[in-house]
Each structure stands twice: as structure tokens, then as C-alpha cells.
Amino acid sequence: MDDAVRSADGDVLDEEEREELAALLRERRSTDVAEAQRMAESLGVLLSSRSESTADDEHDPEGPTLSSEWSRLQALRSDAAHDIVAVDAALERMRLGTYGVCARCGEPIGVDRLRARPTAELCIRCAVAVEG
Questions:
Q1: Distance between CA 55 and CA 64 in Å, rounded?
Q2: What's the predicted TM-score (pTM) here?
Q3: Half-sphere exposure (CA, 13 Å, Cβ side) for 5?
Q4: 100 near 7, Cβ under 8 Å?
Q5: What SS3 class is residue 108?
Q6: Strands, E, within 1-132: which ranges?
Q7: 8 Å CB contact between 104 and 125
Q8: By the 8 A CB rule, do 69 and 46 touch?
């Protein structure tokens, strides 16, 4: 593959654009890791609260139950973990020189789509076809 990848509008992802996108991915990964750590800490605090509490929080009208809060925090932690995997996959595609190429049709993914969704593996046309 060339040192540059054509975008869907025929332009080329030049070195500056690839660096911009790599920086977006690294920043996103850092944010996701921090979020996952915050959720893990919150889950630890909640677990401690659950083990120390003898109250019947399932019928507490004052707020969410410990169980619902546990589920919410687990979901947020899981979302962050999934996003870390997607970011790592995008960084690996970048390393291999396949970043910005649609995994379905092999056509370039537009630079604007990559800026909006830097982990995108599909061009807009294929993403619409897969979802629809």
C-alpha cells in the first residue's frame, strides 16, 4: 500500500492527516483508560458499601438501588473496555497501513468520517448497507 491512502472523495490521507488521526486515537484511548479506572474504583467503593450495608436498599425511595448502580457502572466500564479494543484495532490498522480503507469493500474511508469516527472500519456506503 502507498504511504498515503486515498479518501472517499479522491483526496489523500497525507502524513499530517494521519498524525492528526493518530493523535485523536491516542487521546481517546487515554480518556477510555481513565474512565475504565474510575469505573473500577467506583465499583470497588460500591462493593464495599454493599458488603457493609444491612439496609434494604431495594425498597429505598431515596434513590437508585445498589444493584441498579452496580449495573450502570458495569455497563459504563464495559463500554470503555470495548472502545479501547476498537481504538487499539484502529492503531494497529494504522501501523499496518490499512487504516482508512473500508474492511468490507476495500474503498477509502473519507477523512471527514475518520475525523468524526476515528475507529471506523467501514466507509459510509458500507456502514449504511450493513445497518439497513
A1: 13
A2: 0.75
A3: 25
A4: yes
A5: strand
A6: 5-6, 12-13
A7: no
A8: yes
